[in-house]
Design goal:
The complex is a heterodimer. By secondary structure, chain A is mainly alpha-helical. Chain A contains 18 helices and eleven strands. The chains are: A mainly alpha, B alpha/beta. Chain B: This is Vacuolar protein sorting-associated protein 45.
Chain lengths: 554, 582
């Protein structure tokens, strides 16, 4: 046996295997160059006080496990080279001992694996190793339990335990398997902290540990800048084209509309002059294909010039690469007898588009369309219901509290809110149906309306159905409190009957829907049950109607 | 380190619950990305009433707000620009699933004459999220082959896609990792250095909170463990994938005999199906009893629904009905799936096949294995694919055995009527992932002791004869977590081998690990990750791969790839094989 002394020292521990293990950790973590003296001092402290005192810094420890961890955490600055070689050898040997290896694995404390990790910290931290504070550590009382909610094991000398270095609570060693870096004030410090043993709660509640929002980058401002320059250059271009257009049209309008035959030549010269003054034309011979439709020019596909940009394009009416656009000129003063004059301008595709986009820039928003208004109504009801529901639930909770019998005001209030909710549900349903049946030609619009309706049905199912089984418990209470032997129905009863009727009608409608759905998906077993249901509902409804009808006639 | 939560957060941000009428426009790839993590009804709840493809023709609906979510590929950007030239909707919010190029942004800006785009945001959801700890980049045939002109080359397109996908994953998880790779794999090295470069290039984006230990991104190559994808798994998800093929969360059952029409195409994701989520990792035996309980539970509900006597019963019935209907749909789905699985197990004598597979993977018993193999490949029940798989496993195992019968067995397969192009894949497999190509010997864990020592404590080892095999990944991860992953076998991508800082990080136990498997990952390995994180609290692992493999896909991919590889001069694959066999 190569470790007789530590074993004697730690004889207070109960399990023999446990102490071979802890002895090993001592050897690893805390052996000073003169191991002989260390061991004797340790023996004496235990004999004196029956408490554990750190042999190096004389700090008091409450348990063996705590001492071990203290030694691991705080006194790892002993240079590895200072360990006597016999020690290294025996540690190496001990590692290979099957029992130790097995135990090491079983306890999964990984003492051997982690101590070098903590010793590497010393390369970063300055030499008088700073310590994580222990001021907040909880001292064990007689009846201490593991702070892990799922564990709550009683902590005693038999169940090794220790403090979480971060929150200071006591845990059994099974729930102290986590290590993270702590600064000296026991807060998390991922960069320069000291590796310390912590509990799961502290480990997982580190800032950023459970973060599930991924990174993202907004390019909106970069985008708007790019767009602004693009639009500015387009505006510029559009302005230029517009200027050219006005110049062209003005000049052309000054020419007489129908030149006499002797002036034909000068006329066409003049036209050409005007055209060239607006924009110089591209040379015909340089261009072999139309720039938009990429077809070769030929006798049947003639070359034309766009009057605004001067580029050569075709004039095929199928592709609309360029077309003549007639522009009417209304003379400002009707001094001459001239009728409004028209000038035709040949424009290529691109110039046309740029000028057009200027005209039709942003269309007015369509927010006042009847469909949108119908949808707004629907969302308003939905918001209203969502706001009211929690209030109703809170009231109901107060009512169902067994200890305090409900008072009248509360009941009244609850009834009022419930009625309000039921009303809004009905209106919500009506609004949803209105959207479904909104007249439209468009397929997509139809699809849209169907989806909105589907969503509204599932909204009703999740929010309205729970509401319906609730009134039962307080309607019975009310029945007992306000039971009156009158033959005619009181106003209150009429109201409650009406409510019941509404509920039942609503259910009948739903059952019908379900039957239809079941038919579609061929679930015949479900249909039978549903139909029976529907029949009973009908029964109940007619009964109620009879009652109500009686009271009204009476 | 929860991929699913991260992806859902992104989508929730994209489609806020603000009451406005919305349409979601997607491209081919984002459609898959979204559908893996968000259901139609969840979208409806957030007022997304229409979902359409950007490349479709659509009607003008000026009263809708349009949410565009695209991968910033050239094609999608062009489509978006066209949409903006002739806008159908009143307002556009543009989200991209990855980093968009400057020219792409310009292209969109130029098209947006009417200033309808109010938001352009890069989100990083560029991977298919299968579960919180598993993702795939879906680089598979027939869409995109990952191999280039030789077994050690990437297809350049696939390499780009993989780099982008991993970059997005890192950004979604907010990790700036140290990168390591398997030294014997050229493809892993290349991908690792590409990712390293992109992380460097996008440094401002990777400005995250420091972690106690740097997260580790580890690149592995499938060729070091060719055995795992060839074995028949016995857990629910893995088995459905192997035998029926899960594609982007749906299973096509139209080939199943006597299938009801509504079950021809079923959705199978953990997100949408709580029963599946509970039993993803359950083995086939236990699954049977769980399904039985599920059916009993359903029947009890049906019974109580039949006994309707009072109005109260009826109300309860009406309230429970939607839930009841959902349950009934789910029960019939899982019953169909499991009965189809057991039909296949029975009719293709998969128990015998699997027993031999496990023996080939875990034991060294040549003569006995050969005998069983010979009798099995002559059986008429065993499918051709299973036969090829068995011979492939045999070839991988006994490649170095002087008495091996690989060639004889391959000829036997051909005479038994297995098409020759199917058997040829065995020689391709040996060329790509034979003993000479592998970094570790997956068969080394012969003695029980060495297995116990290397493995994780608390991981259940040998459960039964059909699940003896543990993927190589288990060993690699245990080395990594213990800080014993060798520097020469798994170097750093930045080239530093002995910088003091990196030695520190090797000694510290890593807390967050991302493993990416070049060449595809298996559900079997996802199961392993799940088990490890159960036994090692405090260590979080995310697993990803170019694709999620099943044996058939793995072999098909090799076959497809080998068609474009030139065989080394003078030797055909067959000659080289016979060389090795002789």
């Amino acid at each position: 046996m190569d470790r007789p002394k530590p074993r004697r020292v730690l004889g207070t521990a109960e399990k023999p295997y446990e102490d071979t293990l802890t002895a090993n950790s001592h050897l690893m973590g805390a052996v000073s160059p003169s191991s002989e003296s260390l061991l004797s001092s340790e023996t004496s402290t235990i004999n004196e006080t029956e408490r554990f005192v750190c042999p190096i810094c004389n700090e008091e420890m409450v348990s063996l496990a705590q001492l071990n961890r203290h030694l691991d955490d705080a006194h790892t600055d002993v240079p590895t080279s200072a360990k006597p070689s016999w020690l290294k050898k025996s540690v190496a040997k001990a590692r290979q001992l099957p029992t130790v290896a097995a135990l090491n694995r079983l306890s999964r404390l990984d003492l051997f694996d982690e101590s070098p990790a903590s010793s590497t910290d010393d390369t970063r931290t300055p030499s008088p190793a700073p310590e994580v504070t222990r001021a907040h550590w909880k001292l064990p009382s007689d009846n201490e339990k593991c702070s892990q909610p799922s564990c709550r094991k009683k902590l005693s000398i038999r169940t090794p335990f220790g403090n979480c270095a971060c929150c200071g609570n006591l845990y059994c060693t099974n729930h102290l398997k986590f290590r993270m870096r702590l600064a000296q004030d026991a807060t998390h410090d991922p960069q320069n902290g000291i590796w310390s043993t912590v509990c799961e709660i502290c480990y997982t509640s580190r800032p950023g540990y459970m973060d599930s929002t991924g990174a993202q980058k907004s390019l909106t401002s970069a985008f708007s800048k790019l767009r602004a320059t693009a639009i500015a250059s387009k505006r510029l271009e559009a302005n230029r084209l517009e200027n050219r257009l006005t110049r062209y049209v003005e000049n052309m309008s000054l020419l007489p509309s129908k030149p006499p035959f002797y002036a034909r030549l000068t006329y066409s010269n003049k036209v050409h002059e005007i055209e060239q003054s607006v924009v110089p034309w591209e040379k015909d011979q340089d261009i072999a294909v139309c720039r938009y439709c990429s077809r070769n020019f030929s006798i049947s596909l003639r070359k034309h010039h766009c009057r605004l940009c001067g580029q050569v394009v075709c004039s095929d009416s199928a592709t609309n690469c360029s077309i003549d656009i007639d522009i009417q000129i209304v003379p400002e003063a009707a001094t001459e007898k001239n009728d409004p004059k028209t000038v035709s301008v040949r424009m290529c595709k691109r110039c046309r588009m740029i000028l057009n986009s200027r005209v039709s820039s942003r269309k007015s928003s369509t927010s006042d369309s009847p469909f949108l208004r119908a949808y707004m109504v629907l969302t308003q009801f939905q918001v209203g219901i969502k706001d009211t529901l929690p209030r109703f639930e809170a009231l109901l909770e107060a009512l169902s509290d067994e200890s305090a019998p409900p008072n009248k005001e509360q009941l009244h209030e609850a009834k009022k809110i419930r009625q309000k909710l039921l009303d809004s549900f009905t209106q919500y349903d009506i609004a949803a149906k209105r959207i479904l049946n909104f007249p439209t030609q468009s397929e997509t619009q139809k699809k849209l309306q169907k989806s909105i309706y589907a969503q509204s049905v599932s909204f009703l199912q999740t929010h309205m159905l729970p509401l319906q089984n609730l009134p039962k418990n307080f309607s019975s209470q009310r029945a007992s409190s306000t039971a009156s032997p009158e033959p005619g129905l009181s106003e209150e009863q009429v109201v409650s009957l009406r409510q019941k009727l509404i509920v039942l009608e609503e259910q009948k409608f739903m059952v019908k829907e379900m039957i239809n759905n079941a038919r579609k998906s061929r679930q015949f077993d479900a249909i039978a049950a549903l139909e029976q249901n529907g029949a009973e509902l009908d029964n109940e409804i007619s009964k109620l109607q009879l009652q109500l009808g009686n009271s009204v006639s009476a | 380190m929860d991929l699913l939560a991260a992806a859902q957060t992104y989508i929730r941000q994209m489609v806020p619950d603000d009451g406005s009428l919305k349409i979601l426009l997607l491209d081919a790839e984002t459609t898959q990305i979204v559908s893996m993590v968000f259901s139609q009804s969840q979208l409806l709840q957030r007022q997304v009433y229409l979902v359409d493809r950007l490349d479709n023709n659509r009607e003008k609906m000026k009263h809708l707000k349009c949410i565009v979510f695209i991968r910033p590929t050239q094609e999608s950007i062009r489509n978006l620009a066209q949409e903006l030239y002739a806008p159908c909707y009143g307002e556009y919010h543009v989200y991209t699933s990855n980093i968009i190029s400057k020219s792409g942004l310009e292209q969109i800006a130029e098209a947006d004459d009417l200033e309808l785009v109010t938001k352009v945001i890069e989100l990083f959801a560029d991977q298919l999220v299968v579960s919180p700890s598993l993702f795939s980049l879906n680089i598979t045939i027939p869409r995109l082959l990952e191999f280039g002109s030789s077994p050690t080359q990437w297809n350049p397109q696939a390499l780009d896609r993989a780099t982008q996908g991993i970059l997005a994953t890192l950004l979604a998880l907010k990790k700036k990792p140290v990168i390591r790779y398997q030294s014997n794999s050229e493809r892993a090295r290349k991908l690792a250095s590409y990712v390293q470069q992109s992380v460097q290039a996008e440094r401002p984006l990777f400005d995250f909170r420091a972690s106690d230990t740097p997260p580790i991104l580890l690149f592995l190559d499938r060729k070091n463990d060719p055995v795992t994808p060839l074995l028949l798994p016995w857990t629910y998800q893995a088995m459905v994938h192997e035998l029926l093929n899960i594609q982007n969360g749906t299973v096509d059952l139209s080939n199943v005999p006597d299938i009801r029409p509504e079950l021809k195409q079923i959705v199978l994701t953990e997100e949408s199906d709580p029963f599946f989520k509970r039993n993803v990792f359950l083995n086939f035996g236990d699954l049977g009893s769980t399904i039985k309980d599920y059916v009993d539970h359903f029947q009890a509900k049906t019974q109580s629904n039949k006994q309707i006597e009072s109005i109260a019963d009826m109300k309860r019935f009406v309230e429970d009905y939607p839930e009841f209907r959902r349950l009934s749909g789910n029960v019939s789905k899982h019953v169909t799936l499991v009965s189809e699985l057991s039909r296949k197990v029975e009719s293709e004598s998969l128990l015998d096949v699997s027993e031999l597979e496990q023996s080939l993977a875990c034991n060294d018993a040549h003569n006995q294995d050969l005998k069983t193999l010979q009798s099995l490949i002559q059986s008429s029940k065993v499918t051709d694919d299973a036969k090829v798989r068995l011979v492939a496993l045999y070839a991988l195992r006994y490649e170095g055995n002087p008495n091996n019968q690989i060639r004889v067995l391959m000829e036997l397969l051909v005479t038994l009527g297995v098409p020759k192009e199917k058997t040829d894949v065995i020689s391709t497999l040996l060329r790509v992932a034979g003993a000479s190509q592998r970094l570790h010997d997956p068969y080394s864990s012969d003695s029980i002791f060495s297995r116990a020592r290397s493995g994780f404590t608390g991981l259940k080892g040998v459960e039964n004869v059909y699940t003896q095999h543990l993927p190589l990944l288990e060993k690699i991860l245990s080395w990594l977590i213990k800080g014993k992953l060798r520097m020469d076998q798994y170097p750093y991508a930045d080239g530093s081998t002995s910088v003091p800082q990196s030695t520190v990080s090797t000694k510290e136990r890593p807390q967050d690990i991302i493993v990416f498997m070049v060449g595809g990952v298996t559900y079997e390995e996802a199961l392993l990750i799940h088990k490890i994180s159960e036994t090692m609290p405090g260590v979080r692992i995310v697993l990803g791969g170019t694709s999620i493999l099943r044996s058939q896909l793995y072999l098909d991919q090799l076959r497809e790839a080998s068609a474009q590889w030139q065989t080394p001069a003078g030797h055909t694959a067959r000659e080289r094989l016979s060389h090795r066999v002789a």
